[in-house]
């Protein structure tokens, strides 16, 4: 098996290896969750020497669901050992997709939830979306301090494939403990009538919509192939060279971006990524003020990535890269076609006649 480049994302085998090291050395059992498992990237200084043979390490953030205590660990994949193991009391790792789904199912089975929804005329719980958010740390009620608390918006669908956000169940919220999946509170403060505004966007659900039929298909052909070269995770185009990375938090990361100039590669950037994306709702009402929409830090662009499709998301001569992440049990999962690489011609930027 070819040894990965020091900046290549963790493989499925490496994710399993990192989890296995902690299960063996620290007794991590079935009641633990893995919030994040990612490559411990070499620093810029470490690349000043022989950067191609640096050891492979992983950063793992996990917690015990029984006592709620979180840990941050660095494990060496090259040496099959735990390098650091640090307890982080008073901190909560990012919410996981598994917790979102499990909280929704637990609420769907809860009689108190069914009763609260029935009082509003909603009896088909299969049509309900329980949209669980992480609390802002300073907003967690004093009597819930120390718990891993989620706050739930409620929406419902008029049809199986309709837009749930078209039908908010305003004034009704649930507070859940993510570790025990216990319903802590039912907040039933006020009722708002169903919006009169149509909020659907799928064509067959929009009344009276007639889709355009006056556009001919657009095809992009490159008979001689694209001008870029992708070898593993190294991308070269024109005189540009870079490495394409991917992790659970930032999603796409560009490493060691350089430009070939007179026989040498000039460094342009050591690392490029989106650091954070914050959505400030700026609404002090009970329906909004507890939302913490840190889309990168709390949920993760990588975890939220979906597979791209030719003709829908990408046109032309395409090269795809898959992304390998993991679930909260530490099992790897692959996102097919997570990254699409292709050329686009935006024509001449400026022309003088």
Give your account of this protein's structure.
- By secondary structure, the chain is mainly beta.
- It has 3 domains: 12-87, Roll (Nuclear Transport Factor 2, Chain: A), CATH 3.10.450; 97-194, Roll (Nuclear Transport Factor 2, Chain: A); 228-341, no CATH class.
- Helix content is 11%, strand content 32%.
- It contains 4 helices and 15 strands.
- The strands form 4 sheets. The chain has a 5-stranded antiparallel β-sheet, with no helix packed on it. It has a 4-stranded antiparallel β-sheet with strand order 1-2-3-4, covered by helices on one side. A 4-stranded antiparallel β-sheet has the order 5-6-7-8, with helices on one face.
- Strand 9 (228-231) and strand 10 form a beta hairpin.
- The longest helix has 15 residues, at 12-26.
- The mean pLDDT is 91.
In short:
This protein is mainly beta. The protein is 11% helix and 32% strand.
């Amino acid at each position: 098996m070819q040894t990965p480049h020091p900046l290549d994302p963790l493989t499925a085998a490496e994710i399993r290896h990192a989890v296995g090291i902690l299960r063996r050395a620290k007794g991590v059992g079935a009641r633990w969750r893995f919030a994040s498992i990612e490559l411990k990237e070499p620093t810029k200084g470490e690349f000043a020497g022989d950067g191609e043979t640096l050891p492979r390490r992983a950063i793992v953030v996990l917690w015990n669901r029984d006592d709620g205590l979180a840990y941050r660990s660095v494990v060496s994949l090259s040496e099959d050992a735990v390098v650091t193991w640090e307890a982080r009391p008073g901190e909560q790792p990012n919410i996981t997709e598994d917790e979102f789904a499990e909280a929704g199912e637990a609420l769907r089975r809860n009689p108190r939830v069914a009763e609260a929804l029935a009082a509003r005329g909603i009896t088909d719980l299969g049509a309900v979306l329980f949209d669980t958010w992480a609390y802002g740390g300073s907003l967690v009620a004093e009597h819930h301090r120390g718990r891993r608390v989620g706050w739930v918006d409620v929406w419902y669908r008029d049809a199986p494939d309709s837009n749930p956000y078209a039908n908010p169940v305003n004034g009704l919220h649930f507070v859940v403990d993510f570790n025990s999946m216990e319903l802590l509170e039912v907040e039933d403060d006020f009722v708002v009538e169903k919006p009169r505004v149509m909020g659907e966007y799928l064509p067959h659900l929009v009344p009276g919509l007639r889709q355009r039929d006056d556009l001919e298909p657009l095809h992009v052909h490159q008979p001689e192939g694209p001008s870029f070269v992708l070898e593993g995770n190294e991308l070269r185009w024109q005189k540009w060279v870079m490495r394409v990375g991917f992790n659970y938090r930032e999603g796409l990361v560009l490493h060691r971006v350089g430009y070939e100039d007179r026989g040498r590669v000039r460094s342009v950037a050591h690392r490029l990524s989106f650091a954070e994306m914050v959505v400030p709702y700026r609404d002090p009402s009970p329906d909004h003020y507890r939302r913490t929409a840190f889309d990168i830090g709390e949920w993760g662009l990588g975890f939220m990535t979906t597979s791209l499709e030719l003709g829908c998301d990408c046109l032309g001569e395409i090269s795809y890269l898959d992304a390998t992440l993991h679930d909260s049990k530490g099992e790897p999962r692959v996102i097919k076609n997570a990254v699409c690489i292709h050329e686009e011609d935006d024509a001449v930027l400026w022309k003088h006649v």
